[in-house]
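#structure-requests
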Amino acid sequence: MKKVPILADRIRKVPSHFSWVDHRLVGDRHIDGCSHAASALYLFLVTVGDAKGLSYYADATISKRLSMDQQVLDEARNNLIRIGLIAWRRPLYQVLALDMGRREILAPRNVMDTPMALSELLNMAREGAS
């Protein structure tokens, strides 16, 4: 089937500022482990992150932008951490590379009580690969 744009004057281009959604999010089934709220949070973080996937948005701002209360935001963040899509250490978020494939690399935990350093996340991921 030949693909022809529906709106030829609205073909998207990679913007000069950096942002994208990796097609492996769906292709490798990472998205299958995301709640609706986690998917919305992931899209927000991918959109606002820099080239390394880093962003510093506060909970209050994210909650307002995504129309989520704090409990839903906490659950969404924990969901993304648990399935290995993001790392978080208040106030820093990092959207992680999808190179590891879809797998649960972290046991569920309350990151509000025990922020996780990126080095801890990477060590846990390495141990899980062994």
